[in-house]
Write a structure and sequence with these properties.
6-stranded antiparallel barrel; alpha+beta
């Protein structure tokens, strides 16, 4: 056997050893002082546990430069939570707020997992709130654990860091809550549990723009902004308001909201459904949340095409610049008539890979379809009166900016 072949065989052996090491899922044998149960506490605790994890975390997907790969850690996270839950509580019921089951639990946790990556390591921070069946908060806090992010089986780093962080959460909770003589005889399930106890209001999973269509507090926004929200809140005139989703069309990408806001800053609809090619338009929204000032951003442009992408329904194209967070914003004429709603823009990053860099190619749902949607859902729509005094552009823009609100979606 020549030396070249020996070197190659050695490289293969080392690679296999590394891969096997990276692929090993650890057990619950942590010896850290923080993970020790109180003396006299036996596990598993004989009460069923409910666990809520935001759907966006279970479906998360991101690229990690250090391993040059896309990661989808949801399944590994879920498996680790089941492992820790069964070890400490005996049985685990995942709470699905969208498709709730009637399987019962005596206590439940709302979890807020977050990942950080640095120097080849992955750190899981697990925020948690622990409740009894009646919704009484018994314990809250957060625990962290870090693991190496192996180059071949990085997914095990997600599993192991979640498992260890969750073990710390379980031990801390049991030590604090399950004291002698305390019983948990009550039962709840995903149907009964108050969603406000599950939702994490520390940071929205997405933000968008909504606008008022009448003085009664009804608003419109894009359906993809409200998709999957356990709770939606409106930031308007310096105050936060809860809103209720009262109508949705995924096909048109539009949703209707009810709020407790009374305002005369609403946008009346153009009576004619026609949009004129080339006419000047303006839109307002709240793009790039937490990067730009928390006030409405107003941009102007033109109707650049009466058609949008092939297969899209009721959409037209306009050139007023929009950014993430502007979805759901209104599109108005120079007179202040509502003529459309911002629904999206071309994926510039994807097209740039083909050598194409489009500018200001944005899409709006036309007024004709807005009217049909609002009427179908018994909405409260106002119409622009042609006989009114022609407003000046400054007044139109001020009214537009004061008719929009930032919408936050929470899970």
């Amino acid at each position: 056997m020549n030396w070249v072949l020996c070197v190659r065989l050695l490289a293969v052996v080392l690679m296999v050893a590394v891969c096997q090491g990276c692929a090993t899922r650890e057990g619950l044998n942590m010896q850290a002082k923080d993970a020790q149960l109180r003396k006299g506490v036996d596990i598993p605790v004989n009460v069923p546990l409910g666990i809520y994890v935001p759907e966006v975390r279970l479906k998360e997907r991101f690229f990690i430069d250090s391993v040059s790969a896309w990661m989808t850690p949801g399944d590994d996270m879920r498996a680790a939570l089941v492992k820790a839950g069964n070890a400490y509580f005996g049985s685990v019921e995942f709470i699905d707020a969208e498709q709730p089951s009637e399987n019962e639990f005596a206590v439940f946790m709302s979890l807020a997992p977050a990942w950080e990556f640095e120097a080849g390591k992955i750190e899981m921070t697990m925020g948690y709130r622990f409740y009894d069946a009646d919704g009484t908060l018994l314990k809250s806090g957060q625990e962290s654990n870090s693991k190496q992010l192996g180059p071949y089986h990085a997914a095990t780093g997600f599993y192991n860091s979640t498992l260890k962080a969750m073990q710390l959460v379980m031990v801390d909770t049991i030590n604090s809550v399950f004291v002698e003589g305390r019983e948990f005889t009550g039962r709840s399930n995903a149907v009964k549990v108050d969603r406000d106890l599950l939702v994490n209001l520390d940071k929205p999973i997405r933000t968008g723009t909504a606008f008022f269509i009448s003085e009664s507090g009804q608003l419109l926004t894009a359906a993809h902004v409200t998709n999957g929200c356990l709770k939606s809140q409106l930031n308007f005139a310096g105050a936060v308001h809860d809103v209720e989703i009262t109508g949705v069309s995924e096909l048109l990408d539009v949703a209707m909201l009810d709020s407790d806001v009374s305002t005369n800053r609403f946008l009346p609809m153009r009576r004619s459904a026609d949009v004129v090619l080339g006419e000047r338009v303006a839109t307002a929204g709240f793009p790039l949340a937490n990067l730009l000032a928390n006030s409405a951003n107003l941009t102007v442009g033109n109707v650049s095409s009466l058609r949008a992408l092939p297969g899209s329904m009721g959409k037209f194209q306009f050139s007023a610049p929009v950014q993430p967070g502007s979805s759901g914003g209104p599109l108005i004429s120079e007179r202040g008539e509502l003529i459309g709603m911002t629904t999206g823009t071309l994926n510039v990053a994807a097209l740039a890979e083909r050598g194409v860099v489009p500018q200001n190619v944005n899409f709006a749902l036309s007024g004709e379809y807005i009217v049909k949607f609002v009427e179908r859902h018994n909405g409260d729509l106002r119409w622009f009166e042609d006989g009114e005094t022609q407003p000046n552009i400054a007044a139109v823009n001020e009214h537009l900016a004061e008719s929009v609100a930032q919408l936050a979606c929470y899970q």
